[in-house]
Design brief:
212 residues; alpha/beta
Length: 212
């Protein structure tokens, strides 16, 4: 069995620029974010995909539809497992606001504890379980297929750590650019990382490459 997964972070959003916790709340794509998606769609033309899967959050769905306007993948589905981590009471806040309003909860989250979760939110380990389920199910649902999936920075980070076996408590030492493309291959009953966070140049446009 040989299954390929092209995993993409959504385009730039307003809250990305304001460095606010988006989680499972949406903010709109910027025009820059929409252009990122269109350029990625053009870049992927010529590659045949069997299915397009997107997180059911608006910023990912919009990115997926813009990309697909160049690819015309007929099998298009949403997947809640690909949602960003739920940040609960932190939604809509930037880090400074979160630390001021919820100092105890912020200190707990910044401690690196993978089991820590703010009220109404998810821990890193809960997100890991969702992403692991997605990776486990994909080769079963789509054996010998090539899948394009649009998701979020936290999910991309988690998938890379799972496949490369990077501890979740370890600081992140790689960037997570908007519309960055990572390619995973499933063979010999195991996932491998072929490429990580490839981006398409946007001339002089800014590429937002962080996530909260």
């Amino acid at each position: 069995m040989h299954t390929e997964l092209y995993l993409v972070r959504h385009g730039e959003t307003l809250w990305n620029l304001e460095k606010r916790f988006q989680g499972q709340i949406d903010s709109p794509l910027t025009e820059n974010g929409r252009e990122q998606a269109r350029i990625l769609g053009k870049f992927l033309q010529g590659i045949s995909f069997d299915v397009l899967i997107t997180s059911d959050l608006g910023r990912a769905e919009e990115t997926a539809r813009l990309v697909n306007s160049f690819l015309n993948i007929s099998a298009f589905t949403t997947e809640p497992l690909l949602r960003e981590r739920n940040f609960g009471i932190f939604h809509g806040l930037n880090r400074e606001e979160a630390e001021k309003r919820y100092p105890q909860e912020a200190a707990m989250i910044w401690s690196g504890n993978s089991d820590a979760a703010v009220p109404g939110g998810e821990s890193k380990n809960q997100l890991r379980q969702r992403v692991q389920q997605f990776l486990d199910e994909l080769p079963v649902k789509y054996p010998d297929k090539r899948i394009l999936a649009v998701t979020h920075g936290g999910v991309v980070n988690t998938a890379i750590r799972l496949v490369l076996r990077i501890p979740f408590e370890a600081p992140r030492r790689f960037k997570l650019p908007n519309t960055g493309l990572s390619i995973f291959v499933y063979e010999e009953n195991e996932w491998f990382l072929r490429a990580m966070n490839v981006i398409c140049p946007l001339n002089n446009r800014h590429i937002y490459d962080d996530t909260v």
